[in-house]
Amino acid sequence: MATRHLKPTILVLGDSLSAEYGLQRGSGWVALLEKKLATEKIAANVINASISGDTTSGGMARLPALLENHHPTLLVIELGANDALQGLSLALTQDNLTAMTQAAQKAGAKVLLLGMQLPPNYGRDYGERFARIYSDVAKTSKAALVPFMLKGVADVPDSLKWFQADRIHPLAAAHPIILGNIWPELRKLLR
Description:
Blueprint: E1 9-14, H1 29-39, E2 45-48, H2 56-70, E3 74-78, H3 81-85, H4 90-106, E4 110-114, H5 124-141, E5 144-146, H6 175-190
Parallel strand pairs: 1-2, 1-3, 3-4, 4-5
Helix pairs in contact: 1-6, 2-4, 4-5
């Protein structure tokens, strides 16, 4: 058991965007992160605890056991999109993200929040309020933040070329861009 502190442990708590939904195993951003760490000669364990369809409530329910079992030095939270897609309360989403962040910090882990934005058809006001949740939680909890993990994928004029037929889940070709959005903040937290 003493070996767990020799290498940092990165725990990814996410939904289908991190669970390689519709992708060949090993082609999602979390798998690419493991390769990047090896290339950069950064010794770290990566545990992907992502489940397609998960919400912040699901993440909240699973987090205590994950913290207990894996003792992460860094928790990456990639949750919230399914809350919005299911029309759940924005206040509940924010409360859950805050509670997960604080639980991880209390357990000694740094936290990186991966922000998400909604498609325009959800309405501008709702979309802006949803996007602001991540910056608000990061600010109040002093957690790190990637404002929009799908930057350069979902917010470009020809964005459909980056998505599977469902227009929700990125293709494997988009995952290096996604990792490129996440890596600079994640790298700072590993120093």
